[in-house]
Amino acid sequence: MRVRRRTVMIVIAVAVVCFGLVGGYAVLASTAVAPGTLSKPLSAEAHVLPSSSLDSADGSATASATSSTTATSGVDIEVPKVVGKSVKIAEAVLSGAGFAAQTRVADPPVSGVTPDTVIEQWPAAGALVQPGSPVVITYQPRTGSIAASGAPVVVIDAGHQQTADLELEPIGPGSKTTKPKVAGGATGVATQAPEYRRTLEIAIKLKGALEAKGVKVVMVRTTNDVDIPNSERAKLGNDAKADLVIRVHCDNSTDTAKNGVATLYPSGNSWVTKIEKPSMSAAQAIQAALAKATGAYSLGTYGRADMSGFNYSQRPAVMVLCGFMSNGAEDTKLGQSAYQSKVASGIAAGVIAYLEKR
């Protein structure tokens, strides 16, 4: 009896195991993914932009792509109404509600509307979007503002280029002292990214930030594969009759602990006498706004007499040093799109402050 009972128990155990295996295979078969397809993740849906939704010039999303990425998850929040409020209050309301406010000046101004009042917003009040999404608010310019007085022209020169041009040129018109037409630039100690790539990324964001404020922007370059000497870059600003030329650069040092932002301006020679004072004024405004927007350590402003890009310029000009690529932490931040936007926003705020006080 004991042998027979043990045999029965073994048979039952084998049957249970077989049933479990068959059931398991059935479950696997029911959840199998067809060849060439991906199963839907269990987490929140991922929004993927089609390749056609990217702007070929700078990689930014097109308007159609932006509309296609309207959030569909359960965490969407309602956009508050800010039309009719002052721009400062509107920014505070949007920030408190979890949105990123982007401002632009009405151009032309709307008749009968109080200055600094929000006259339009997008997305509209009541729209459901994801937290952190941008809300663009258009407001009435102040009397005498840049929008009310006609669009100023700002030339943005993204420093360096993909291939350095080490052929020499005079550092100023008629000078016997020479330097390379375009130096190679720095390389990120943490990211290994070249400076020419970082400067263009920031320059493109700066272009958008300034245009949103009603500024006409002329870009010296929009791609990395160019060959434009520093003297020619300055002449492009002259030809455009720029109200300000902004040279976007990063910094580098043998001291890897050194960090911070600085803004340079032309000074100390006869070539730049006429533009030194307004350039210094612009540098001071930009430096203050940049340090505030980024939280970076401010290294201040100082004049330079040895830069071809300054010495050939007949228009007010500055060079913004956005951070040290030789510092691991700062180099890492400079590679982040969100931080680049802070840099661009800070520079733009300084530019507007300078233009409105001229």
What features would you describe in this structure?
- The protein has 358 residues and is an alpha/beta fold.
- It has two domains: 81 residues, Trypsin Inhibitor V, Chain A (2-Layer Sandwich); 205 residues, Zn-dependent exopeptidases (Aminopeptidase), CATH 3.40.630.
- It contains nine helices and 13 strands.
- A six-stranded mixed sheet has the order 9-6-10-13-11-12, with helices on both faces.
- Strand 7 and strand 8 form a beta hairpin.
- Helix 4 packs across helix 9 and helix 6 crosses helix 9.
- The protein is globular.
- The N terminus is likely disordered.
Summing up helix and strand content along with how strands pair, one would put the structural category as: alpha/beta
Q: Report helical residue fraction.
A: 25-40%
- Give the helices and strands as they follow along the chain: HHEHEEEEEEEHEHEEHEHEHH
Number of domains: 2
Topology:
Blueprint: H1 2-30, H2 63-68, E1 77-78, H3 87-97, E2 100-105, E3 118-122, E4 128-129, E5 134-139, E6 153-158, E7 165-170, E8 178-182, H4 195-211, E9 216-219, H5 230-239, E10 244-251, E11 261-266, H6 273-294, E12 298-304, H7 308-311, E13 317-324, H8 328-334, H9 337-357
Helix pairs in contact: 4-9, 6-9
Features:
single chain, 358 residues, alpha/beta, Trypsin Inhibitor V, Chain A, Aminopeptidase, 2 domains, 6-stranded mixed sheet, 3-stranded mixed sheet, globular
Summarize, please:
With 358 residues, the protein is of the alpha/beta class.
